[in-house]
Amino acid sequence: MSKKPASSSPTILVGTYRKNQLKKWILPKGLYNYPIHDEDTAIKAAAPNIRELWLYASKTDKLRLEATFDREVSADEFAACDYHSFSPFQEVSA
C-alpha cells in the first residue's frame, strides 16, 4: 500500500475554544481563528487540505466540524471581521 503525498492528504486542524467563543463567533460566523505565522511553513502547506476541525473546550467538551481552508487574512482584514469586538472571557447567556 502506498501513502498519498502529504500535499494531497486530508488534514485535520485541532484547536481549542471557550464556550462563549463557540456561541458568539465560531458557529454563527462559520469561522475559526487559527493564527499562522510566516515561519509556519508546514501549516501553510497543509492548510488547503483541511477537511475537518476538531475543537476542544475540555477533555469532555469536544466538537468535530467539517471544514475547509478559505484563505489567509492579514491582521487588518481580520480586524474588519469584528472578532476583537467580542471578548471570549465575557459570559454569554445560553
Can you count the beta strands? 3
Which shape, going by the Cα principal axes?
globular
Say what oligomer this is: single chain
- Give the N-to-C terminal Cα separation: 49 Å
Cα-atom Rg, whole angstroms? Answer: 15 Å
Number of helices: 3
Listing every helix as H and every strand as E from the N terminus to the C terminus, the arrangement reads: EHHEEH
What percent of residues are in strands? Answer: 15-25%
Helix content: 10-25%
Supply the helix-strand structural class.
Answer: alpha+beta
The spatial strand order of the largest sheet comes to: 1-2-3
Biggest pleated sheet: 3 strands, mixed
Ranges where pLDDT stays below 50 over 5 or more residues in a row are 86-94
Residue-averaged pLDDT, rounded?
76
